[in-house]
Amino acid sequence: MDAKQAQLFTSSAAFSAYAASVLLVSDQIKTRVPDPYMDEIFHVEQAKTYCAGQWTTWNNLITTPPGLYIVPSLLHQASPKWFLCSTNHLRWMNAALLCAFPLLISRILSHFRTTPYPPRPGVKPRVRFLIPEDEIILEAIIISCFPIAYFSGFLFYTDLGSLFAII
């Protein structure tokens, strides 16, 4: 196995372990906390309202924009038998985002790895924040495990969807 193959294997194994942990924790939460929890009470109800086509109904206790509720509504309209707008399906939608998050972050880190600083007269050219190529996915997984992303990704909260949309 050459260095490139070893790097690919390591990155694939790390990402697979991360995704498996997300799926296992999601399954445990589904089993142990089947009903909406804390702020999910508002978010799940609003998503179900949008899934029912009631676009003008809004809960004034919700302070986030409606984007998080539009996505499940579109999924439900596209495939009503597959995506039911249940608490479980809404949580799995966030878990899917959580699984995709390291891939998005690794794209950003790859850019920083190779982007030079703008040239300035009299200053030797240098490269921004060098991350070895074989460590990019590991760094991305570590960033994806930060609490705002990781812990809110198992429930139907707006944090992860908002963070994903901004990045």
TrEMBL record:
Pathways per UniProt: Protein modification; protein glycosylation
- Spell out the subcellular localization from the entry: Endoplasmic reticulum membrane
Task: Kindly state which keywords UniProt assigns to this record, in alphabetical order.
Answer: Endoplasmic reticulum, Glycosyltransferase, Membrane, Transferase, Transmembrane, Transmembrane helix
The answer to whether UniProt assigns keyword Transferase to this entry is yes
Membrane topology listed for this record = Multi-pass membrane protein
The reaction(s) catalysed by this protein are:
an alpha-D-Glc-(1->3)-alpha-D-Glc-(1->3)-alpha-D-Man-(1->2)-alpha-D-Man-(1->2)-alpha-D-Man-(1->3)-[alpha-D-Man-(1->2)-alpha-D-Man-(1->3)-[alpha-D-Man-(1->2)-alpha-D-Man-(1->6)]-alpha-D-Man-(1->6)]-beta-D-Man-(1->4)-beta-D-GlcNAc-(1->4)-alpha-D-GlcNAc-diphospho-di-trans,poly-cis-dolichol + a di-trans,poly-cis-dolichyl beta-D-glucosyl phosphate = a alpha-D-Glc-(1->2)-alpha-D-Glc-(1->3)-alpha-D-Glc-(1->3)-alpha-D-Man-(1->2)-alpha-D-Man-(1->2)-alpha-D-Man-(1->3)-[alpha-D-Man-(1->2)-alpha-D-Man-(1->3)-[alpha-D-Man-(1->2)-alpha-D-Man-(1->6)]-alpha-D-Man-(1->6)]-beta-D-Man-(1->4)-beta-D-GlcNAc-(1->4)-alpha-D-GlcNAc-diphospho-di-trans,poly-cis-dolichol + a di-trans,poly-cis-dolichyl phosphate + H(+)
Q: Which GO molecular function annotations are given, in alphabetical order?
A: dolichyl pyrophosphate Glc2Man9GlcNAc2 alpha-1,2-glucosyltransferase activity
The record, for InterPro entries, names: Alg10 (IPR016900)
Q: What is its EC number?
A: 2.4.1.256
Q: Which domain of life is it from?
A: Eukaryota
Does the keyword tRNA-binding feature in the UniProt annotation? no
Q: Which GO terms describe its biological process?
A: dolichol-linked oligosaccharide biosynthetic process
Q: Which GO terms describe its cellular component?
A: endoplasmic reticulum membrane
Q: Which family does it belong to?
A: Belongs to the ALG10 glucosyltransferase family.
Instruction: Quote the function comment for this protein.
Output: Dol-P-Glc:Glc(2)Man(9)GlcNAc(2)-PP-Dol alpha-1,2-glucosyltransferase that operates in the biosynthetic pathway of dolichol-linked oligosaccharides, the glycan precursors employed in protein asparagine (N)-glycosylation. The assembly of dolichol-linked oligosaccharides begins on the cytosolic side of the endoplasmic reticulum membrane and finishes in its lumen. The sequential addition of sugars to dolichol pyrophosphate produces dolichol-linked oligosaccharides containing fourteen sugars, including two GlcNAcs, nine mannoses and three glucoses.
Q: What is this protein called?
A: Dol-P-Glc:Glc(2)Man(9)GlcNAc(2)-PP-Dol alpha-1,2-glucosyltransferase
Species this protein is from = Puccinia triticina (isolate 1-1 / race 1 (BBBD))
